[in-house]
From TrEMBL:
Pfam families registered for this protein in UniProt: SnoaL_2 (PF12680)
Gene3D superfamilies referenced in this protein's UniProt entry, alphabetically: 3.10.450.50
Domain SnoaL-like: 68-158
Disordered: annotated segments: 21-51
Biased segments, Low complexity type: 21-30
Signal peptide: none
Name of the protein: Nuclear transport factor 2 family protein
PANTHER family: BLR2505 PROTEIN
Length: 179
């Protein structure tokens, strides 16, 4: 089921066939259309709970908090691609220590999300968002992310993250970490 930015409490600037669509950045692909079997279908209580939990986590992050509080302690987070942080992390703490902290060390302004859209199907929430931060060398850090979040009881148990690996690799090569 497609959940537009508007349906989940995020701003939406355009409407297509009655479905709120968060506009894509110039040159970026637009959000997918709802599948025919879910278009117009009501959300189940599980889907409502999962979408609300993810929406609230993004809102916390936008307000300066952490999205990652929504992860279970044993959450498995996989980062695809070939960046220095690509791989699979088998706990929330490992993910924070080995991926998020090294990224944070290279930024003077940490990444702020702008959600393009959220989609939910049972225990899975799909999130597409743009991130903007500033590296310690003063250069912008901009990337577009797609996350597949598997949920249980309103918490993320596993995730797969897609983004432009070259943007992260460039940051790693330009800005040294503290280690």
């Amino acid at each position: 089921m497609l959940l537009s930015g508007t349906a989940l409490g995020f701003p939406s600037e355009s409407k297509t066939a009655g479905v709120g669509v968060v506009p894509a950045a110039t040159g970026a692909p637009s959000a997918p259309s709802p599948s025919p079997d879910t278009e117009g279908a009501a959300q189940t209580p599980e889907e409502q709970r999962n979408s609300a939990a993810v929406r609230e986590a993004f809102q916390r992050w936008e307000g300066g908090g952490s999205f990652y509080d929504i992860l279970t302690d044993d959450a498995v987070w996989t980062i695809t691609g070939s960046s220095p942080i690509a791989g699979t992390y088998t706990s929330r703490q490992q993910f924070l220590d080995e991926a998020i902290e090294p990224l944070s060390e290279r930024l003077s302004v940490f990444v702020k999300p702008t959600v393009r859209g959220l989609w939910v199907d049972g225990d899975t929430v799909f999130a597409q968002w743009d991130g903007h931060g500033v590296a310690k060398d003063g250069q912008p850090y901009d990337n577009t992310y797609s996350w597949i979040l598997h949920m249980k009881d309103g918490r993320v148990t596993s995730a797969v993250a897609f983004f432009e690996s070259s943007v992260v690799t460039d940051l790693w090569e330009r800005v040294p970490g503290s280690n």
